[in-house]
Amino acid sequence: MPTKHSKLCSLHFTPDDFVLECQDSNSTRRKRKSETPLRRRLKDDAVPSVFPNCPAYLSSPAAASRTTSRATSSSRHQREADRMAALEQSFFSNDDIAGLSLSTILQRLKAEACLPDDYQLAAVEDSLVACLIAVKTCVPSITGSIVLHSDFSVTVSLNGQVVSASQYSNILKGTIDSLSQLLNIMARLKAWITEPSERPLALCIDMTVNLLKPAADTLEHDSDEYRKLSFITEQLQLLSTSKYGRSYSPQLTIMCYMISAASSAAYNVILEENILCLPSTSTLKMSE
């Protein structure tokens, strides 16, 4: 068993196991490195690995010195940040469709792995059309469609009704400039079709208003039917607007003022029922 006085020959260590230390106390000689005496000292983690008089398997080959510049935490974070930046740049360059022809975008869509299922794609005149078709009793019908026009504007329809751009404004504002925007709108439209209960109230109101407006346009503006349809349409639009952000038409304001003037108690009862979207009494007083 080795004791504290036991020694081991330096030949059993590799050159990398040693550190050279200056032992000269003379500062003048220390500046002249060629004359400075050096002393070898073993590193704290040095392990004997060279045994020339023993079988070769007992000696381990000298390991190549390992650089630590890439092993630090900051260098790893920097490499990861650089890798993510490169991936992001690659994604945006592949995602950008500005300046591409509609036929090229059509081919990109067909080859896209993230394309929602069941969409039929076609180039129709100066537009790219993506539509979902349902077949009931052997009669096909388009349940939803997205039309990308030559100016890169988009028209979205659901069950034959044009969907207001406000319903997908968090995805697209203005014109299409990336493939991911188009894919996200397609995914949202399909979700509205497959899960009608997931449709937001604002979307349902918007579709109903768009259905009533053409009917109202066929009526005389002074007819009772037109006045009733206009009232219903305005009530639907007010329903999807915040209470403190509502703007009432002159016709509705005048009607409410006349009711309040005839019986303020009756008007308060109507307000308390909260069935109709009507201006408050304070709003009526401000409009006097």
Could you describe the 3D structure shown?
The chain has helices at 27-31, 73-95, 102-110, 179-194, 201-217, 224-239, 250-262, 264-273, 281-286, and strands at 18-22, 38-42, 120-124, 127-136, 139-149, 154-158, 161-162. The longest helix has 23 residues, at 73-95. The chain is elongated, with a radius of gyration of 40 Å. A hairpin with a 2-residue loop joins strand 4 and strand 5. 40% of the residues lie in helices and 15% in strands. The chain folds into 3 domains: 10-58, no CATH class; 102-197; 206-286, no CATH class.
Which helices and strands appear, and what pairs or packs with what?
Blueprint: E1 18-22, H1 27-31, E2 38-42, H2 73-95, H3 102-110, E3 120-124, E4 127-136, E5 139-149, E6 154-158, E7 161-162, H4 179-194, H5 201-217, H6 224-239, H7 250-262, H8 264-273, H9 281-286
Antiparallel strand pairs: 1-2, 3-4, 4-5, 5-6, 6-7
Helix pairs in contact: 5-6, 7-8
Question: What is the gist of this entry?
Answer:
The chain has 288 residues and is α+β, with helices and mostly antiparallel strands. Helices cover 40% and strands 15% of the residues.
Structure characteristics:
alpha+beta; 3 domains; two-stranded antiparallel ribbon; 288 residues; 40% helix; five-stranded antiparallel beta sheet; elongated
Instruction: Quote the average pLDDT.
Output: 85
Outline the low-pLDDT stretches: none
Total discrete domains = 3
Quick one: how many beta strands? Answer: 7
State the strand order across the main sheet: 3-4-5-6-7
Shape summary: elongated
- Order of SSEs: EHEHHEEEEEHHHHHH
Query: How far is it from the N-terminal to the C-terminal residue, by CA?
Result: 109 Å
Largest sheet, in brief, is: 5 strands, antiparallel
What's the tally of helices?
9
- Rg (CA only): 40 Å
